[in-house]
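Sharing a chain and its predicted structure for anyone who wants a worked example. Both blocks are below, sequence first, tokens second.
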Amino acid sequence: MLREHGLYDALQHVRGLDHLAGHVQGRVGRRADAHVRASNTPPEQCLFIGDTLHDLETATAMGCQCLLYVHGHQTKDRLADGAGPRAQLIHSLGEVLGFVRAHG
């Protein structure tokens, strides 16, 4: 999907799921945190992209920036109410590239 949207080459490391099973979220957060630490990349230079407030909580706990996709598991209103200024809401994956370019 990242290649289809022209995003893959703009990102240095990509980690994600290839399924929609929400029951593994805790493990995903632990693996993401371990990957960030092992990469020696400062967490504030990492971008966590999700579609739930739990994704935002995970990103915040890791010290990462976060984008929340509004056409995913939780509604735009729920994300906006819960995220406040802690995360930018995006309406398309194309917005990720603009964010990456703007934040180097």
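Comments welcome. The first helix runs from residue 25 to 39.
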